[in-house]
Design brief:
With 456 residues, this protein is α+β, with helices and mostly antiparallel strands. The protein has 19 helices and 16 strands. It has helices at 15-34, 48-51, 56-61, 78-82, 86-93, 103-112, 157-173, 184-193, 200-207, 210-224, 229-239, 245-255, 260-275, 342-351, 372-381, 383-387, 401-410, 421-426, 444-455; strands spanning 38-39, 45-47, 65-67, 94-98, 121-130, 142-151, 177-183, 284-287, 301-307, 314-321, 335-341, 365-367, 392-394, 415-418, 429-433, 439-442. Helix 1 (15-34) crosses helix 14 and helix 12 packs antiparallel against helix 13.
Length: 456
């Protein structure tokens, strides 16, 4: 028999897992709503020219491309097939790709619907994305992102608001986190004073891998990309500045005194950290000069969130992008956003056993089915339970009671109702709590109140 499987880097979700995922999506969505963000959705696939060139060279390699419909080799010459230029070949047989993130499709959405939008526009989006990455713990090829963005405003109040959203989300989940902040202008300023402005992307891409490959790995990658040892030596003490946030920023003001761009980044960070003194932020917030966020479209503040208790990579990240919509023809529209990694949050909650007890799925009450007469009585009286919001079902067959009770146990159904001739005559039900074994006869209304008192 052929072994069936799913693609590596993807997962099936059981009913219990779906209940937990719904809890995550609902919690994040509720907090987005509280801050005035509105939901939208975009297609799973986008035109490749929408996606290509927005994520850097490495990001482009991770795009899942969709073969053209029908005979996708139509018009392709043998020379094309034999060519070693895979990129040129793929562009001829594929015009669409699965979205890599939700930010670029959002920028495309803003441009396409700009006459329908009131700016500043605050939107959130909870949808899956796909990356042809190497699957490993906490890294999947198909995963959900929960994004919140505000576009059409350059105010740092927006960065503050997103940090408040992050803090509330993880406080609601009881996950202890560290919110790391940096600024791409600071990184650009560092590259400038090192005389390597043209290699900013090389430097940020390498720094972005620090947690994965370590300091030596980053140094090796910088060397491989043409950064000289003297430049690397000058870079190390800058990105490893220690002390308080204020001390780091004061040192950076001196270090970047000859870089206008770098000083703008320092000023933005000074203002943001001043704002952060006002609300009560429960997460640790720190300035991390090694934080780079490899995506090319970031231009200002960059944010990354890590769990203090589970090593799984970032559970949330984002930043400021000043002209992403300009790529699509709408210039000078600044935006900032963050993206929560629902799958990693799921794994953290699971590992720390932080799901609330009420997060469950399926039936709370099962009516045992003894026969046609009892079945009729049940069908006449089952609606009030469902109307009260209690997931309720009737066993569909007139099976032996042992089989029906086993069904309830296997599905972790906490309550069972038994209806026989006596119960029908007295217009009651025999009601059993499967955990305690307690069994009582009571009215429909009493049974509903009992379940609600223990279930809600």
């Amino acid at each position: 028999m052929k072994k069936v499987s799913i693609p590596k880097g993807t997962r099936d979700y059981s009913p219990a897992a779906m209940a937990r995922r719904k809890y995550i999506f609902d919690t994040i969505g509720d907090i987005f709503n509280v801050f005035g963000y509105q939901p939208i959705e975009t297609p799973a696939m986008e035109n490749l020219d929408t996606l290509l060139g927005k994520y850097g060279e490495e990001g482009d390699k991770l795009l899942f491309k969709i073969l053209n419909s029908g005979n996708f080799l139509n018009g392709i010459e043998n020379a094309d097939i034999q060519s070693t230029d895979a990129g040129a070949m793929s562009s001829k047989i594929s015009e669409k790709g699965l979205r890599y993130d939700l930010t670029v499709p959002f920028a495309r959405y803003v441009v396409q619907h700009r006459n329908e939008i009131t700016f500043p526009f605050k939107r959130y989006q909870i949808q899956p994305v796909w990356r042809a990455d190497r699957p490993q713990k906490g890294r999947y090829r198909e995963f959900y992102q929960c994004d919140a963005d505000i576009i059409g405003s350059r105010s740092l109040l927006n960065e503050l608001e997103l940090i408040e959203i992050i803090d509330r989300v993880f406080d609601r989940f009881s996950i202890k986190t560290c919110i790391k902040i940096n600024n791409r202008k600071i990184l650009a300023g560092i590259a400038e004073i090192l005389g390597e402005s043209s290699k900013l992307t090389v430097i940020t891409t390498a720094l972005d891998k620090l947690d994965k490959i370590g300091s030596e790995g980053v140094t090796g990658e910088l060397r491989d990309k043409g950064i000289s040892d003297p430049v690397i030596e000058k870079l190390q003490p800058i990105i490893n500045l220690s002390g308080t946030t204020e001390e780091k920023l004061n040192n950076l003001t001196t270090i970047l005194k000859d870089s206008e761009t770098g000083l703008k980044g320092v000023a933005e960070m000074e203002s943001l950290f001043e704002y952060l003194k006002i609300p009560e932020i429960k997460s640790r917030v720190e300035l991390d000069l090694t934080l780079a966020r490899g995506l090319n479209y970031y231009t200002g503040a960059i944010i990354e969130v890590q769990s203090d208790e589970v090593k799984i990579g970032s559970v949330c990240g984002g930043g400021r992008y000043d002209d992403l919509t300009g790529i699509f023809g709408l210039e000078n529209v600044s935006g900032v956003g963050v993206s929560f990694g629902a799958d990693r949050i799921y794994d953290v909650l699971d590992q720390l056993d932080l799901y609330p007890e009420e997060v469950s799925t399926g039936t709370r009450l099962l009516f045992i089915n003894f026969g046609e007469k009892e079945e009729k009585y049940i069908l006449e009286n089952i609606s009030p339970f469902r109307d009260a919001g209690i997931p309720t079902e009737i066993y569909p067959d007139h099976a032996k009671i042992k089989k029906q009770m086993s069904y309830a146990n296997q599905k972790d159904i906490p309550f069972v109702a038994l209806v026989g001739e006596e119960e029908i005559n007295k217009s009651v039900i025999s009601f059993k709590d499967m955990a305690s074994g307690e069994q009582i006869k009571c009215s429909i209304d009493e049974a509903i109140k009992l379940i609600q008192s223990r279930y809600v």
